[in-house]
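As the next step, I needed to go through one protein, both as residues and as discrete backbone shape codes, included below for the reader:
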Amino acid sequence: QLVESGGGLVQPGGSLRLSCAASGFTFSSYWMNWVRQAPGKGLEWVSAINSGGGTTYYADSVKGRFTISRDNAKNTLYLQMDSLKPDDTAVYYCARGPPYRLDEFDYWGQGTQVTVSS
């Protein structure tokens, strides 16, 4: 099971940190991802991190502004989001699977809403 938290309403230029608590599987053994879905649009892969946390990837749209991390002792995935823009408004999901490959993600959270607006 994956449970996201930390979403909310933030002004442009602001920051949020999302969390994803994992249970029911060996969290430390898997690549993890963040994916988002903006209103009226399809799923967009955002970021991935390998099992040990030493390798990370980002979509061009968030590179330099978002930071993915994990704490395997706490079975928790994070997404630090800085310099937020209105275009970042979306439901954010954590998901288990190899980087980029949405069709191979086998566990998904329920999502947390992020709204960037003044």
In short: The mean pLDDT is 97. The two ends are 34 Å apart (CA to CA). The longest strand covers residues 16-22. The chain is about 0% helix and 45% strand.
